[in-house]
Structure formats: structure tokens, C-alpha cells
Amino acid sequence: MAIYLGLSFLLRLTILTKKLNVSFEIPFNIILGLILGPFKGAFLAILADTLNLLITSSIATWMIEYAIIPPFTAILSWLLFYIYQLKNKLSFITIFSIFIITISTLIIIYFSEVINGANQVKIENLSKDIRQIFTKELVLILIISFSSISLIILISFSILYFKTKKEIYYLIIFIFSVVLTIVILLRWLWGPYAFIKYYNRFIGIKNNKLREINQYFYFYLTPIILKGLITIPIYCVFLISLTPILIKLKKRYDTNNYDSYHKIKSTYY
Q1: Within-domain flag for 113
Q2: What's the rounded Cα separation, in Å, for the pair 10 and 13?
Q3: Any transmembrane segments, and where (predicted)?
């Protein structure tokens, strides 16, 4: 947890956070769910998030809309890890189904906005020339293209795994699916709603300019998606590199606890 808090502070000073909004809270909470399970992982995710707010003097801006993201990330990652450990056809079908349902939901939601409105989506932190390029139609094309590429990647590594039975291919499938599912659900779809709530509670109320969710949801969704296309590969590389080591440490920890339990049991019984 100390490493996470230190990284979180240092990243605030880098271009990754200032321009691309790259936060390592998501992969950190995924790791907590993988290693500690749903209950301990969720508890430590809440604790780390709260400590981070205290250290950065942001505790006054605590909101339930944001506070539920860390524990939900840990729980969802644990659930997908449980499916991953089954290593059978059902686990593959489940992982693919979750991915397809999640990405289809995003496409349907964004497609409905393209049909209902033809206004360009503005991206505040980009230049005016670039803003004019990223219309809703183009962003929808990017989403569909990204989804297609993601599906091709999952299918390709699935074929490689079934042909070679190498564990690394199965791990890549798992990590890629976990990151995509969590980022799309909690960052892309839930993120705009949470931010509008934050804006109205701490900014809009001061100048009496509250923002309606149905009017500003896509205004914030579009830049989040565009930045997410950069952060998702970063998260995947980070977790693919780190997860095998953590899984080995977890197995060693579980084995030591199991041996210790039986030693104590044999002593008293």
C-alpha cells in the first residue's frame, strides 16, 4: 500500500496524469482483488483510496459515487480470476461473454447518442483543430475499431493457448479481458456520471450552474474514451508483467498458511 501511495503521488507530477489522466488506482485495485480476494481486497481498496484522499488533502471531496469504484474493482477482478482458474471451456465462454456484453453495451449507448444528436463532441484539453476532427461519428468508429481489434487479440491468443498450452497466453487473455471490462464499466460508463455529480456538488453549486446528466454525459464520455485507448495498453503491459510474480507469491503464502495451520492443529489435537 505504501508503494501505491508513493506512486500515486509521483504520478500526479508527470504528464501521464496531467494530460492523459493515467491513474494506477485501477491496476492496483485489480491486484488487491487477485491476491487478497473479494473481502480483504475490497477493504484495502477502500482504505487505500481514503488514505490517498487524506494525503492529498482531498478528503472533503469524498463522494460515494467515486468511493464504490475501488472495492467494486477488487471484487470484479477476483470474480474474473476465479473464472480464470477453472481453465476449461466454460471459463473461456464466460470471459468472452462478459467482454462482448460489456463492449456491446458501450457501442449501443454511444450509437444511440449519434442517432439522437449531430453535435460535435468538444474535448476541452485539446486544441480547437483536433476538437473539430473528433465528431461523435468518428469516435463511434474508433470504439467499433477498438472493439474489433480487441476481439481479434482475444481470439488470436486463445488459438495460441489451445495450440501450445502455454500459460502466458492464457494470462494475457485474462488480463486483457479484466482491464477492458473494468475500464469500460467503471471508467467509461460510470465515470462521466460520477464526474457530473462531483461537478454539481462542489463546483456548479457555487456559481449556480448545475449540469444535467443527459446533456453532459457524452460531453465527458468522449475524452475519457479517447484517453482510455492509451491507458488500456499501459495497464495491460503493467499487469501482465507483474501478475505471474504475484500469483506465485500468493501460492507460496497460501501454502505456508496451510502448513502452519496443520502444525498448530496437530499440536493441540
Answers
A1: yes
A2: 6
A3: 26-47, 59-84, 90-112, 138-162, 168-196, 217-247
CA distance 185 to 187: 6
- 263 located within any domain: no
Q: What are 78's three cell numbers?
A: 477476483
Residue 238 makes CB contacts below 8 A (sequence gap 6+) with 24, 27
Grid coordinates representing 42 are 475490497
For the chain, the straight-line distance linking the first and the last C-alpha, in angstroms and rounded, comes to 38
Residue 204's domain comprises 2-246
Buried b (16+ CB within 10 A) or exposed e, 186-222: bbbbbbbebbbbebbeeeeeeeeeebeeeebbbbbbb
Query: Total structural domains in the chain?
Result: 1
Q: pLDDT by residue (tens digit) across 2-60?
A: 555 555 555 554 555 555 556 778 888 999 898 888 999 999 999 988 988 888 788 88
SS3 210: coil
Residue 130 makes CB contacts below 8 A (sequence gap 6+) with: 123
Amino acid, res. 50: T
C-alpha triplet 192, 194, 199: angle, nearest 5°: 90
CA gap 140, 145 in Å, rounded: 8
Question: Alpha-carbon distance 252 to 71, whole Å?
Answer: 25
Dihedral class, residue 231 (left if φ above 0, else alpha if ψ from -120 to 50, else beta): alpha
In a domain, 264, yes or no: no
What is the reported pLDDT for 54? 87
Q: Is there a contact between 6 and 28 (Cβ–Cβ < 8 Å)?
A: no
State the cell numbers at 104.
456491446
* 154 in any annotated domain: yes
